[in-house]
Amino acid sequence: MSISQFLLFFLLPEKKFVTNKFKGCPAFSFFLMIPSGLDEILGAIEKPIQYASGHDFANLKTLKGLEPYVAHWLGRAGTLLLSPRRQSLFQRLRIQAKGFDDLDLAEKKGRISEIQKIIHDLKCEDEAPLPCQPWPTQVEFHQSRKDLQTSIQFIKGVGPRLSEVLKKKNIITVEDALYFLPRLYQDRRQIKTISQLGAGKIETVMGTVLRADMTPYRRRRTFELTIGDETGTLIAKWFNFNPRFMKGRFKKGMRLILFGEVRLYQFQKEIHHPELEILEEEEPATPDGNEALSPEKEKSLHFGRIVPVYSETEGLYQRQRLIRRIMKNTVDLFAAEEFSGIPEEVCRRQNLIPLSEAFRRAHYPDPGEDLSLLNEGKSPAHRRLVFDEFFFLELGLALRRSGTLMEKGIPFSISHRYTSGLRKMLPFSLTPAQERVLEEIETDMRRPHPMNRLLQGDVGSGKTIVALLSGVMAIEGGHQVAIMAPTEILAEQHYLNIRPLVEKLGFRAALLTSSLKKSEKESFHSRIKIGEIHVVIGTHALIQEGVEFHRLGLAIIDEQHKFGVLQRATLKKKGMNPDVLVMTATPIPRTLAMTLYGDLEVSVIDQLPPGRGAITTRVFNEKERFRVYRALREEIAKEKQAYVVYPLVEESERLDLKDATQMAKNLQRDIFPEFKIGLIHGRLKSEEKEAIMADFKARRIHILVSTIVIEVGIDVPNASVMVIEHAERFGLSQLHQLRGRVGRGKDPSQCLLIAQYPRSEEAERRLRVMEQTTDGFKIAEEDLAIRGPGELMGTQQSGLPDFRVANFARDIQLLSEARKEAFGIITRDPLLSMPEHYFVRETLKERWEGRLELATIG
Ligand code: ADP
Ligand code: MG
C-alpha cells in the first residue's frame, strides 16, 4: 500500500476532501464562454460599478446617470445572440438601474451589489443554464487521475471478500465503479398505495406479504405472492422460478417494495416477475464487516428519491441496498474527480453537463429528473457520458488520420500507358461508379502522402477490376503491388483472373499462400525481394515474417472486414509508407463505417454493372425440399449451374447439421445421378481446390456442394442457383454474401433457403429480410438492428475500445456530433499542442493506451 493509499484509507470515510475543490470560475474559462462582444459590454457596465463600490462605496455619491448609461449598453447587447437566461439577466440589470439617481445611499448600495451579482452570473452563465465548469490545475488533474485508480477496497463497506465479488463485474478501481451505471431507476419519490396503481403503467409500490404460494397454472405452476396495504391487494406472479429458493425467501408479514408493469386480471391487479426488495430483512453482515448506515441515512438512500438499481452478481444477489451504499460512498467521494477536459465551447454547443455532475446524477438522479429518459439511457447525465466516450474515440481517429495526412508517401507518376492497355483487354467498359472511384484513387496516389482509402461496394459491383487498375498505376510508377485476400480460394481466384492480364502487359504475378512448399516459398521471397515480381497475391502468408518487398507501392486488402486493423498496419510496414486500399463488400451503415474506419477516406461503388439478372429469394422448410430440387433440375436443364452450401464440413456429434461431404454423396447417388456434382471445402489441398474451381468454371461440374469457403469473392457468372442448407443458422451478412455468388449473369437467378424448425425469432427475421431485399445497405442496417455493432464488426478484432456507457444503436446521433466536434478540434490544432487542449490530450492518451500510434502528440 502506498502512502497516498494509506492516507486515503483513513481519510475517506470522514472527509469529502475532493468535492468542490475547484471552486470559482477561473478567468480562463470565462473567456471561453462569453460570446464575442459580450465581454466588451459587461466590461463597460462594470466600470462605473467598480468605481462606485470601491473604497467602501466612497465614490457612490458622485455616481450619476447610471440608468441611461446601462440602457445604452443594453441596447448594444440586444444585437447579440444570447440565451434566454442571459436575456433575462439583462432585464434584471435594467430594473436595478432604473431610477437610480433618485435613490438614497443605502438603497443605492443595495442596487450596486445586486448589479455586481448579476454581472457575475452573466459571466458564469453558460448558454445552457449550467454552473461554470470548474477547471482543475494540471497538478490537480493528475492527482485526480491517480485517485480514481484507487482500489475499490478502500471504499467503506468493501473489504477483500467483497472486492473479489466486484472483480467479477470488472470493478477494480473506484473509477470502474463510477462507470458501473444502474441498469434501472425506480421512482420512489412518492410511493403509491395499491389502490393508486394504474393498469398498464410501470409502478413502484410497497406492501406486506399476506400469502406466499405455489399455484397450478395450466400445466405448469406459478409462484404467487399476495401483497396488501390498507387500500387493497396486489398479486406478484412468477412463471419461471426456482421453487426451493422462492419458498424459503418470503414470510408472512414481510414488507416489500415491488416494481414492474401493473396488469389487471379479472379485477385483480398483478405484477409479473416484479423487481423487488425485501425491506425488513436482516441484512447479513458481510464478511468485510459492512454495517448499515444510521436509519436516517439509510432511509434517505433507499426512499423518497429516484433509486438506482444495479445489476447483481453471484455473491451479491438481493443485496441492492448494500450495492447502493457502496456506490453512494464512491460517488460522494470520487465523482468530483472526474474531468476529461472537453472544451467549454463544445460543452455549450452540445448542451453537456460537467462530467463529474454526470457521474453523480447517473447514480443519484436529482429529484426533478425525467424517469423515462433515465431508464432509456438518454438523460443529460447519460448523454454526457456517452458523448465523452464517443468524443475521445473520434478524437483518436481524427488524430490518426491527420497524422497520415502529414506523413510522407509516394507521389506516383501515372502515365496510363499500361492501364489503357488493360482496359482494352476487358470485355466490358467500367461503370460510371467504377470510373469515379478510380479517379479518387488516382488523385490520392499522385499526392505525396500515403493513401488510406476504403473501397466499399456491394457484392458483384466490380471492385476487383478497380483494384487491378490501381495496381497497374502503381507498377507504371515503378513499384510493386500486394493484394491480400482472406481465403486461399479467393486468393487463387484473383491470381487466375489477374495473372493473364498482367502478363499480357509484360509484368509478373505470383501467388503466395501458406500451402506452398518451403522451397517454392523461398524462391518467391527472393524474387519479390529483388523486384522481379510486380504483383504479389496472397493470404495471411503475405504479412508473415520473411516477405520483403523491393519497392512496395500499393497494398490492397480485399474483404477488409475479414481482417483486423492491425493486419492492415503490418502490411503497411512492409513498404515505405505504401498507399493502402482496403475493399469490403460488407455494406456498413455510414455512421458505423465512420467509426470503424474513421481514419480512412471512403469511396463507394454504388452501382452494379449493367445487364445483371434479378435474384429471387425464397425460404423453404424440410417438407418442401423436393421443390428446391425441382428448381435445381430446371435450371441445370437450361445449361446453368448451382451451388449448395452447408454450414460444416464434417458431421459433428453435437450439432445435427447436414454434412457437406455426406450430402454431396447423397445428392450424387440418390437425387441427381444424371448430373456431375463437385465438392469443395477448406480442408482440401490447394491444387484440389484449384482443380475443382477450374472444373466448375468450365461447366464440367453442374452442382458445387460447398462449405462457406465460397462465401467471399467467388465469381462464376453462369451459376444461377444458390441453395443454402440450414439457412436459419447463418447470419444476415453471411447469407447476403453467399447469395452474391449468383445473379452475376444476365439471366435471372434464384436463392433458395432451406431452413429447419425450431427457428429463433431472430432467425425468422433474418430469413424474411433476405426474401424482401437484395440491397446490401438495407441488409446491413437490419443486421445492425438485430445483432448490434459489436458482433457485426467484431469490435475486438477491429481494435476499437469497448464502450462502457455508449450503445451504437441508441446513441448513433451523438456519435456524429462527437465526430464533428473532435475532427473540428484536430483541424484547428492537429497535434493538440495548444495549452487549452492539455487535458484533452492527457485524457486521450489514457483512454487509447497505445491502441493508436500517437507518438505525434508525445
Ligand atoms: P466484387 O465487387 O464482389 O468483388 P467482382 O470484382 O468479383 O465483384 O466483379 C463481379 C463480376 O462483374 C466479375 O465477373 C467482373 O468481371 C464483372 N464486372 C466488373 N465490372 C464490370 C463492368 N463494368 N461491366 C460488366 N461486368 C463487370
Ligand atoms: Mg470481390
Give a written overview of the molecule.
This protein has 858 residues and is α/β, with parallel strands linked by helices. Helix content is 44%, strand content 15%. The strands form 4 sheets. Strands 11-12-10-13-14-9-15 form a 7-stranded parallel sheet, sandwiched between helices. Helix 28 (761-772) runs antiparallel to helix 29 (776-787). The two termini are 31 Å apart. Residues 1-34, 127-132, 790-800 and 853-858 have low confidence and may be disordered. The protein binds adenosine-5'-diphosphate and magnesium ion. Magnesium ion binds at residues 463-464, 558, 713. The site of magnesium ion (MG) has 4 residues, from helix 19.
List the helices and strands and how they pair.
Elements: H1 3-11, H2 27-33, H3 38-57, H4 66-77, H5 84-97, H6 105-124, H7 138-147, H8 160-167, H9 174-179, E1 184-187, E2 202-217, E3 220-229, E4 232-238, H10 243-249, E5 255-265, E6 268-272, E7 275-278, H11 295-302, E8 306-309, H12 320-334, H13 344-350, H14 355-363, H15 371-376, H16 380-406, H17 417-425, H18 432-446, E9 452-457, H19 463-476, E10 480-484, H20 488-504, E11 509-512, H21 518-529, E12 535-538, E13 552-557, H22 565-573, E14 579-584, H23 590-596, E15 601-605, E16 615-620, H24 625-637, E17 641-645, H25 660-671, E18 677-680, H26 686-697, E19 703-706, E20 719-725, H27 732-739, E21 749-754, H28 761-772, H29 776-787, H30 789-793, H31 795-798, H32 808-828, H33 838-848
Parallel strand pairs: 4-6, 9-14, 9-15, 10-12, 10-13, 11-12, 13-14, 16-21, 17-19, 17-20, 18-19, 20-21
Antiparallel strand pairs: 1-8, 2-3, 2-5, 3-4, 5-6, 5-7
Helix pairs in contact: 3-4, 3-6, 4-5, 5-6, 14-16, 16-32, 16-33, 17-19, 18-19, 20-26, 28-29
The chain binds adenosine-5'-diphosphate (ADP) and magnesium ion (MG).
